[in-house]
Amino acid sequence: MTIDKNKLFESLFSDYKEKIYRLCYSYSNDNDTAKDLLQESFSKVWTHLDTFQNKSEYSTWIYRIAVNTCLNYLRSTKNKRVEFRDALPEMREEEIDVETQINHLYIAIKELEEIDRLLISMVLDDISYKEIGTILGISENNVGVKVHRIKKQLKDILTKMNPS
What we know:
By secondary structure, the protein is mainly alpha-helical. The chain contains seven helices and no strands.
């Protein structure tokens, strides 16, 4: 373990920990679980850092590791999870503040299919369509089409949540 590896890892962790945490949170919707998934993801980054082949950007590689970690988590808990909806009080539009809107958005995102949650999480993290395509193994144009469909789904879900 060289000092260079340590410095590189520290730099990567510092640069990507917040985005990867948000990704993990979007899958788990739980702070503690998201932290565990973040830690597990970066543990894998550390373990495989020597084998990184420079075929992609570090960001793409790290996102791919985190996505696989989150998907494995979902698969392992799929049969164990008890799903419920947060009770949403009826509110007039002027009473809804930004934080409430963000919470509603995350609840709506939770309703999406796994791959759609992943994709929209990356869009919310300002990752380019090109990089998203590389991470998911689809074309940049296909990413755009999927994002358009996901936005429509989210709009429909949010409308059902708050029909006013």
